[in-house]
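Appendix B, Record 12. Input sequence as logged:
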Amino acid sequence: MVVKKTHWLFLVLIISFTSCEKEKSIEKFTCNLLTISNVVAEETIEVTYKLEATGDYTISSWFYMDENGKVELFNPEVPSEIKVSLSHLKKMQSGAAGNVTEGSIKISYTAISATSSYIGIDQCEQKVN
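Logged structural output:
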């Protein structure tokens, strides 16, 4: 009788240890974001650049184009929104670099005039089930 109880206890312990799941390690997903570029056709236009993120992320850099060219920010605050005025033939574009464990990073720009609309968006997302 003592032997049978020992076998049952041993069997229960083996089943308990083999049925436990190990905690999965989630790899960071590297994000290199870049919006489409557009060139201003109007005399001037106001462009709104945005940087947004959710969840578990890190953003090492974000850039946008202003009247003088590329402006790059390292370890930027999130969320960020910057409005710039661009003149004829200037380039609109934004980019960012970072990592997402679970969540998202999104960059965008919008510019609307009486005759045109410009929109550029890029997003990096990782979801864990």
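The chain has one domain: 25-126.
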